[in-house]
Amino acid sequence: RTTPVRWISRLGTTPVRWISRPARSGKPNSKPSVAFKTTPMATPKRSFIAMPQGEAAYVIGGLIAANGGVYLMWQSQSPFFMQEHFMVSRRYVLSHPHTLVTAGFSHMNGYHLLGNMVTLFFFGPNVIAALGARAFMSLYVSAGIASSVAHVAMVPYRPALGASGSMNAVVAYGICLNPWALIVVFAEFLPIPMPAALYGSIYIGNDLMAALGMDNP
Length: 217
What we know:
Elements (H helix, E strand, L loop, with lengths): L5 E3 L7 E5 L13 E5 L16 H22 L2 H8 L3 H6 L3 H4 L7 H22 L1 H22 L9 H14 L4 E6 L2 E6 H16 L6
Antiparallel strand pairs: 1-2, 2-3, 4-5
């Protein structure tokens, strides 16, 4: 008799179709044999560097646009205006408390901006998928404010700026989610793949050394 065809899907594998064959003649009590074979399945194409999808695309794109916009302001606006409104120190916080937030979106140097935004591009989508867009933004902004407060408390008279405080929180969370995720680092335009745990350790370690004043001989 004809046996129905069934499909078995497994996470991360190609679906497998199995067919029960009727017993051979002369052996009425023998069990039906099972034949396995893989069947082609339409899967979404993935590039070497996957672009953020869904709500992650809007969140990551918006943050990159905001940081990029402030960078362009550094190139066109008065340096005194930018220092008072987009850098954090005890002096600036006392007169402009909003700098606790705005300093976390501020980059004066293009390489500083590029490093933070590339890191956001690789680590952000996984963290957004785990937390959701709203919780991710809460993490991002609160970590930036916390780093600004810590800087004012530890080095009150040295102005600072940058999204490194927010990014350290995102990187740490991303490492906990998937320490072996592939991160591509470009060294003189040469792509170098490395696991997220290694890249994140270098990234956070570099910021920690800078915070402790160990980055300069």
